[in-house]
Amino acid sequence: MSEGNGSYCRGHLAIVGIGPGAIEDMTIKAYNTLLEADVIVGYKTYLELIKQLLVDQEKEIVGTGMTKEVERCQKALEIAAEGKNVAVISSGDPGVYGMAGLVLELAETKGLLNQIKISVVPGVTAASAGASVLGAPLMHDFSIISLSDLLTPWELILKRLEAAASSDFVVVLYNPKSHKRVEHIEKAREMFLKFRAGDTPVGVVKNALRSGQEMFVSDLEHFTELPIDMFTVVLIGNSQTKVMGGKIVTPRGYSW
User: Fold this and answer.
1) Cβ–Cβ contacts within 10 Å for residue 176, how many?
2) Strand order in the sheet with 135-136
3) What distance in Å separates the CA atoms of residue 140 and residue 92, rounded to the nearest whole number?
4) Per-residue model confidence as pLDDT tens digits over 135-156
5) Angstrom distance (rounded) from CA 159 to CA 142
6) Which among 152, 159, 200, 230 could disulfide-bond with 220, CB atoms 3.0 to 4.6 Å apart, if both were Cys?
7) Cα angle for residues 218, 233, 137 (degrees, 5° grid)
8) Is residue 55 exposed (0-12), middle (13-18) or buried (19+ Cβ within 10 Å)?
9) Please, which residues bridge with residue 41 across strands?
10) Contact criterion met (CB below 8 Å) for 92 and 124
11) Is the four-CA dihedral 70, 207, 95, 149 of positive or negative sign?
């Protein structure tokens, strides 16, 4: 990430992707950034994932609950503006449905972009984690679509689903189902069935690379019968995707 004109006079704020959460699934850079931070800010559930690192290093911790993303990022910016080295943690990759965009937007609003150094440290996102469990379903062009309509109108999500389904993308669905939102995954399935065969391979991974991991190989006709929740990623294959020895593979098109 560019460091601008080098005129920073305050602290450093790093937005760090912790991947699925386990230390061994972090990048070396993410791990080292957390070690170097004076203060670590994050959603309490994600802080719990890295609790051993936090205990060992005796870091100052700022934790908030769900839906407190804005408050969390504002607090991190305030602390960095005091001259401290701050790390905001984000599960997966902070630039993929993570905290990076929000931090940068708030920093601009507060006039801090040229006052503190802000860096983004990438991590293993849920699409990559889920794909690694299933085999190699993302070997060709793919799209990631969240089914959560908390920040995006459902009508727009439907348009994106239709565009991806009709374009033969492999599609990864984030936030596929919650206690209150149970019909969106069924409507997504109906949309894909307009363009793809019912036997199109579908992989369902819950808690990818985390404790309690579950993996299922199904098809477009039947995958919604599987246990799906907010901790699940759903990977829908394209017209070339196949199941090989229990693994899902989307051929890249190499010639033998």
Assistant:
1) 24
2) 135-136, 247-249, 242-244
3) 21
4) 999 999 999 999 999 999 999 9
5) 16
6) 200
7) 60
8) exposed
9) 62, 88
10) yes
11) negative
With bands split at pLDDT 50, 70 and 90, how would you rate the model's confidence at 7? low
Distance of alpha carbon 225 from alpha carbon 34, whole angstroms: 40
Using alpha carbons, list the distances in angstroms from residue 233 to 106, 227, 251: 29, 11, 21
Cα distance between residue 171 and residue 183, in whole Å: 18
Amino acid identity at 132: S
**Hunting for tokens 């006079």 — which residue is that?**
9
Q: For 52-92, give the secondary structure using H, E and C.
A: HHHHHHCCEEEEECCCCHHHHHHHHHHHHHCCCEEEEEECE
C-alpha–C-alpha distance, residues 10 and 115, integer Å: 6
φ and ψ of 241, to 5 deg: -65, 140
User: Which amino acid is it at 183?
Assistant: E
